[in-house]
């Protein structure tokens, strides 16, 4: 890697960090390119060398997060995953390493396209896992797996934002993941205790 490549990576990382911190502090609408450049300690011209506008930088922030998440999920043996907690735990651990970036995305800052991109990517991965698992066990799902995957991801996204914004000390990752997995396996009827009521 050349010195120029390293400089580019450092500048882009600085712009990402500046963007995230300013948006979390002032809201997406209140942040302009000059604010981001100043927070990153670069000039406006340098900003425009790397990104067309703040929307392009926002897309870049999301692409980096999703790329890292895909890399972490790459070792998954999808046939053996099912409703186990490993993929969910990896999502939570990744979010714990970059809480501000995930807060920005999960809050739907901007027009919410970062949140939509995360939900779509995670839903597609979940659907593929469920479909491969169903084929491996020769079972026929009772509900469209696209609906199952979207519901599963919706629960995770909502709980993940709650977890990230919980006051310290946060609940343990393994405990939260185990709860989500049990909810997926047994359903809300079991989770709320109504299965113990006799008719």
Automatic annotation (TrEMBL):
Keyword DNA-binding: yes
Record-given protein name: TetR/AcrR family transcriptional regulator
InterPro entries per the UniProt record, alphabetical: Homeodomain-like_sf, HTH-type_Tx_Regulator, HTH_TetR, Tet_transcr_reg_TetR-rel_C_sf
DNA-binding is among the record's keywords: yes
PANTHER family from the UniProt entry: ACREF/ENVCD OPERON REPRESSOR-RELATED, TETR-FAMILY TRANSCRIPTIONAL REGULATOR
Lineage, highest ranks first: Bacteria, Bacillati, Actinomycetota, Actinomycetes, Streptosporangiales
DNA-binding region: 32-51
Domain annotation HTH tetR-type: ranges: 9-69
Source domain of life: Bacteria
Gene3D superfamilies with a match to the protein in the record: Tetracycline Repressor, domain 2
Pfam family name, one: TetR_N
Keywords: DNA-binding
């Amino acid at each position: 890697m050349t010195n120029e490549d390293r400089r580019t990576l450092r500048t882009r990382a600085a712009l990402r960090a500046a963007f995230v911190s300013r948006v979390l502090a002032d809201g997406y609408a209140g942040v302009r390119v000059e604010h981001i450049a100043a927070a990153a300690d670069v000039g406006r011209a340098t900003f425009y060398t790397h990104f067309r506008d703040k929307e392009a930088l926002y897309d870049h922030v999301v692409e980096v997060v999703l790329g890292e998440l895909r890399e972490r999920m790459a070792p998954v043996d999808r046939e053996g995953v099912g409703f186990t907690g490993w993929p969910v735990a990896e999502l939570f651990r990744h979010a714990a390493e970059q809480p501000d970036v995930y807060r920005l995305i999960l809050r739907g800052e901007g027009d919410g396209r970062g949140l939509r991109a995360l939900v779509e990517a995670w839903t597609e991965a979940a659907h593929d896992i469920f479909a491969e698992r169903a084929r491996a066990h020769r079972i026929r799902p009772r509900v469209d797996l696209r609906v199952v995957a979207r519901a599963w991801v919706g629960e995770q996204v909502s709980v993940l934002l709650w977890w990230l914004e919980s006051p310290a000390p946060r609940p343990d990752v393994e405990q939260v993941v185990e709860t989500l997995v049990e909810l997926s396996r047994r359903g809300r009827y079991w989770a709320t205790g109504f299965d113990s009521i006799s008719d």
